[in-house]
Specification:
Elements (H helix, E strand, L loop, with lengths): L49 E3 L5 E3 L23 H5 L44 E4 L2 H4 L7 H4 E7 L6 H4 L11 E7 L4 H19 L12 E7 L7 H10 L10 E2 L2 E2 L2 E8 L2 E3 L8 E3 L8 E8 L4 H17 L3 E6 L3 E2 L3 H7 L6 E10 L9 H24 L9 E5 H4 L2 H6 L1 H8 L2 H6 L3 H10 L7 E12 L5 H24 L3 H4 L5 H22 L1 H21 L4 H6 L9 H30 L6 H32 L13 H23 L4 H5 L1 H6 L1 H13 L8 H9 L1
Parallel strand pairs: 5-6, 5-13, 6-12, 15-17
Antiparallel strand pairs: 1-2, 3-4, 4-9, 7-8, 9-12, 10-11, 13-16, 14-17, 15-16
Helix pairs in contact: 14-15, 15-25, 18-20, 18-21, 20-21, 20-25, 21-25
Subcellular location: Cell membrane
Protein name: Chitin synthase
InterPro entries: Chitin_synth, Chitin_synth_N, Nucleotide-diphossugar_trans
């Protein structure tokens, strides 16, 4: 079986002694044990010779530096050998990547050559290995590095045996005590390697661009630490481990599941790399580049959690363990698969030059080219994202409170998170098992809780900001079976998180130290958010009322078209004298009960079915609502044109003929569709209002009816784990 590129096989056989350690010709017999130099160890794949010092650590051997005599030491476990636990896991690297379990003890550098027997090392010998341990990277990786400092050529492995909250009391990091300006955390679960490559490429390129700025300089990479937290050792994709091995970060053979009698909770790998990937991963054209190709160094920390405990626990490891040890100024949160665009991380960091800013975010955009974004489900999401970033985020940023900083791409001042914000944020781990229905739904949107607690932090006056020029692209669900469950979590979480924030909005005035003017602005913003929430709560009934009114008005317009004076002006509109009048009238009148029937079907299938199990029924309902939306759009256009012709509207004079009804109609259209177009063009965005707005309009009934009904019927499912498990297995 061929070896994967970038993962190097061990050197077989017994290894020769280091240069200068062999016996000279004609040398006397071997000296006594007291005169012998220390025991030497060498591990396959590692050209360095090691000795065991008085503290039990393995340090490189210097032949020219005489060492005090040592008795023969037991053979340590091979740092690259797989254990039974790791080799049995389904995620382990292929067998060709593993080093044999039997390292060899080297001949001792005595005055006379002597044969040293090979000592067999078992998997349990790894428990005798020091913790932490610095292992040399494969020679094939480090030989291309332009910087050969120890931090570049070694990987430190730490088997963490404590909870994240206790990490700083028992362990330390390489950078502990160093001045770290920014920590970037990338959270992942079992995502595909191409998503990991996209994120790592984007992060590296952003770091390289930051170093070009005068504020950072050429050695600015020393102030940046990239932290990768993977949720579950048996869950991570095998290909991602191979990629991390190619970078020189991950070493499968170092993993151990126990330290003495203590279970390992996380596997920590620390390394400074000078490698990255180049090329489009979706096409399989990825090259492993090295320092010769304008690669800047990256200080990396890879935390592989032993058990799967969800994303919020990964953030606990980052904030409570690693960030607590480093104490950075800014923490940037990125989900694997998200690609920060050029200079986006720098712009996000620059916002914290304002000492009042506690959190910031950029624009989240849908990934894809021109043609891909024409797909209805992608186009609707792209239009929704764009309008949120154009209409909602800027006004919220102006007020100082953004309802949510997306976890896929956001940044926080670490100082601002200390205390109450992080305490409330991490309650989600406990509430998931012991909380009420309200609390469990609320913590589906823990990011919103963190934003609220940050702005209302006692004794402080932190603000949240948004920068549209800081952008990150991410893949959007391209199937309704994926989109519906995602939006269920978003809707339920945002609904209950807003109710929590609105019920406690008085804390802005009582416990924060915002200025009086800022408190007034925040109060006005919350009043607007409450009105928006009420309108959204009744959107299902409002949408049906608008549809019913539109149908009735259009039928009445056709009925009035029997007047010769009216018919002359709108002769294209069907009348009772036309053959198509009866058919069109019947279709319109039947549309109302069909709408109600679609709502009833949505309620029924949402109550007792998994989305994938009822995929065909959901798609049928979505198509029904799309046809209804197209019918509404046609009636709006035809009714507006008919009203303009009836009043004798003139574009030259802007004369409405004294009819106030047509003025109201035009104002309604301009305040919706016109506002979308005008505001988008004002921000320099032209693609989505031209090429995506129609798809969004057709899927508006889906957003209003299907998503909200499905979310509302799942409020109580979080309190019934057996029911949730039953539905998920179905």
């Amino acid at each position: 079986m061929p070896v994967a590129p970038g993962v190097f096989p061990p050197r077989p056989g017994v290894y020769p002694p280091p240069p200068g350690s062999g016996p000279a010709p004609g040398a006397p017999a071997a000296p006594s044990l007291e005169q012998q130099p220390p025991q030497l160890y060498q591990f396959p794949g590692d050209p360095t010779y090691y000795i065991q010092d008085a503290t039990g650590n393995y340090v490189p051997y210097e032949p020219l530096s005489p060492q005090p005599p040592q008795p023969p030491a037991p053979t340590p476990a091979h740092p690259l050998a797989p254990s039974a636990s790791t080799s049995s896991a389904h995620h382990a690297l292929p067998a060709t990547h593993h080093v044999p379990e039997k390292p060899h003890v080297e001949p001792q550098p005595q005055q006379q050559q002597q044969q040293v027997p090979t000592v067999t090392a078992t998997a349990t010998d790894r428990s005798q290995f020091p913790n932490p341990f610095d292992a040399n990277k494969p020679r094939e990786i480090v030989q291309t590095y332009r910087n050969q400092n120890p931090e570049f050529i070694t990987t430190r492995y730490t088997a963490v045996t404590c909870a994240p909250d206790d990490f700083v009391d028992h362990f330390s990091l390489r950078q502990t005590g160093s001045e770290i300006e920014m920590m970037i955390v990338i959270t992942m679960y079992n995502e595909e390697p191409k998503l990991f490559i996209k994120t790592m490429q984007a992060v590296h390129d952003n770091i390289r661009q930051m170093l070009e700025d005068r504020q950072w300089g050429e050695d600015g990479w020393r102030k940046i630490l990239v932290c990768i937290v993977s949720d579950g050792r048996t869950k991570i994709h095998e290909g991602v481990l191979v990629l991390l091995s190619m970078m020189g970060v991950f070493r499968d053979g170092l993993i151990r599941t126990k330290v003495g009698e203590q279970d390992v909770t996380a596997h920590l790998f620390e390394s400074t790399v000078q490698t990255n990937f180049e090329g489009p991963p979706e096409r399989g054209l990825v090259n492993n580049l090295t320092a010769k190709h304008k690669i800047v160094p990256m200080q990396m920390l890879f935390c592989l959690k032993e058990k799967n405990a969800k994303k919020i626990n990964s953030h606990r490891w980052f904030f409570k363990a690693f960030a607590h040890s480093i104490n950075p100024k800014v923490c940037v949160l990125i989900d694997v698969g998200t690609q920060p665009q050029p200079n986006s991380i720098f712009r996000l960091w620059a916002m914290f030059n304002d000492n009042m800013v506690g959190g910031a975010c950029g624009e989240i955009a849908v990934e894809g080219d021109f043609w891909f974004k024409l797909k209805p489900i992608i186009a609707a999401q792209n239009f929704e994202y764009k309008m949120s970033n154009i209409l909602d985020k800027p006004i919220e940023s102006l007020c100082g409170y953004i309802s949510v900083l997306p976890g896929a791409f956001s940044a926080y001042r670490y100082e601002a998170l200390q205390g109450k914000p992080l305490e409330e944020y991490f309650k989600g781990e406990v509430i998931e098992k012991e909380g009420t229905i309200f609390q469990r739904n609320m913590y589906l949107a823990e990011d919103r809780i963190l934003c609220y607690e940050l702005v209302t932090k006692p004794g402080r006056s932190w603000l949240l900001r948004y920068d549209k020029e800081s952008c990150a692209v991410t893949d959007a669900p391209d199937a309704f079976t994926e989109l519906i469950p995602q939006r269920r979590r978003w809707l339920n979480g945002s609904t209950f998180a807003f109710l929590y924030a609105a019920a406690n909005m008085g804390k802005i005035f009582t416990r924060s130290t915002h200025t009086f003017f800022r408190k007034v602005i925040l109060g006005v913003e919350f009043f607007y958010l409450i009105l928006n929430f009420i309108f959204g709560f009744f959107s299902l009934s409002n949408f049906f009322f608008a549809f019913s009114t539109l149908v009735g008005g259009f039928v009445e317009l056709m009925r009035q078209n029997v007047d010769p004076t009216v018919t002359k002006k709108i002769s294209w509109l069907p009348t009772s004298k036309n053959a198509g009048y009866t058919a069109l009238r019947s279709i319109l009148l039947m549309a109302r009960p069909v709408y109600v029937l679609a709502i009833c079907i949505t309620f029924i299938i949402s109550l007792g079915n998994n989305v994938k199990a009822a995929r065909s029924v959901f798609l049928t309902v979505i198509w029904l609502f799309a046809i209804i939306a197209a019918l509404m759009l046609a009636m709006i256009v035809m009714s507006t044109i008919a009203q303009l012709q009836l009043v004798g509207f003139s574009f030259k004079k802007l004369d409405f003929g004294g009819d106030g009804q047509i003025v109201n109609t035009l104002l309604a259209l301009l305040s919706t569709y016109g506002l979308y177009i005008f505001s988008s063009l004002l921000f320099g965005e032209w693609y989505h209002p031209i090429f995506n707005q129609l798809q969004y309009v057709l899927l508006t009934p889906f957003y209003v009816n299907v998503l909200q009904i499905f979310a509302c019927t799942r409020f109580f499912y979080l309190a019934l784990p057996r029911v949730e498990l039953f539905l998920s297995t179905r």
